[in-house]
Amino acid sequence: DGGITQSPKYLFRKEGQNVTLSCEQNLNHDAMYWYRQDPGQGLRLIYYSQIVNDFQKGDIAEGYSVSREKKESFPLTVTSAQKNPTAFYLCASSLLPGGADTQYFGPGTRLTVL
Amino acid sequence: QKEVEQNSGPLSVPEGAIASLNCTYSDRGSQSFFWYRQYSGKSPELIMFIYSNGDKEDGRFTAQLNKASQYVSLLIRDSQPSDSATYLCAGWGGNKLVFGAGTILRVKS
Known about the structure:
Radius of gyration of chain A: 13 Å
Shape of chain B: globular
Oligomer: heterodimer
Order of helices and strands of chain B: EEEEEEEEEEE
C-alpha cells in the first residue's frame, strides 16, 4: 500500500524533553511538509523540504528542527525551546517540489505536554 | 500576510439538501485551490482541487473559482450525514499552501 505513515499516534512529553515525530512516505514524492493544527485554527506550516538534504523554515519554525537524509523520511523534533507544543502534528507530501501540487496527509501525531 | 478566510460555522443542512461552503483569499497571485475534508480527530483528506475560473464537478461535489472576486466555493449535493465534518479551503500562495481555519458542516438526518 502506498501512503504516508506517522508515528507514534499519541505522544506525551515532559517539560524540558525533546521528542521526535516520525514521518515516512513510499509515494516517491519529492516534497514533504510538517504542519501544526490547534483547535479552531487552520494548519500552520512548520518546515518543508523540496529535496533530500535541503529544507526551509515555514511560518512557525521556532522550537522545531527537521532533517531530510532520505527521500522517504522527514522526521520532526520538538525541542524544549517550543513552549507550547501541545497540538496535532500533520506530515504531508507532494509529488513535485516548488509547484502548486496536491499535498497528501499522513494520519497525524497528537502531542501532549504533561 | 497571505490569508484564506472561511466562516467557521457550524453550517447545518438537512439530509438531501445542497451544502454551500465558501472561502475568500487575499493573494491575487494564487493560482490553485484545494478543498480538504477533515473528520474529528483525523487528518485532512483531499476532496477536490481547482485551477481555472468556473466550475469543476466530481460526483456530488462542485468546486467554483472566481479569481476576479477572489472567491472559492464548494457545493455538496444530496448531503449525507457522513458529510458532517470540517472542510478546509487552501490556496497556493507563492511557495506554500495557505489554509483557512475550516467550516464545520453538520448534516441532519
